[in-house]
Write a structure and sequence with these properties.
38% strand, 129 residues, alpha+beta, 2 helices, 6 strands
Amino acid sequence: MPTRPGKQLDTFDNPLPERDYTIHIEIPEFTCLCPKTGQPDFATLFIDYVPDRLCVELKSLKLYVWSFRDEGAFHEAVTNSILDDLVAACAPRFMRVRGRFNVRGGIYTTVVAEHRRPGWEPPRPVELP
């Protein structure tokens, strides 16, 4: 049975909810359609997040991302929509979605959208000699 795209994002329990750690996901084959011309737009999505109680399940994320390939969306709207959907699914402490869109008409576009749970502060980086 073939796998089909869908908007459902599944989650699983964070194995270490007491620890702040970062999950980095890179999706190099994101596509959507230009809402003006209908031509495909290609991007690499970068998702970085500090989970709280839940983590995003990767197969559902793949199918979710795949669901945009026939939808018209401006770069700014689609990047923010992805962030909103991911935050609704897993309620992370922090999440950043960066869409690096391929050149179109001689212009590259990168859109960065962030969510920070109120009251959450990132740990201080440790500097070693």
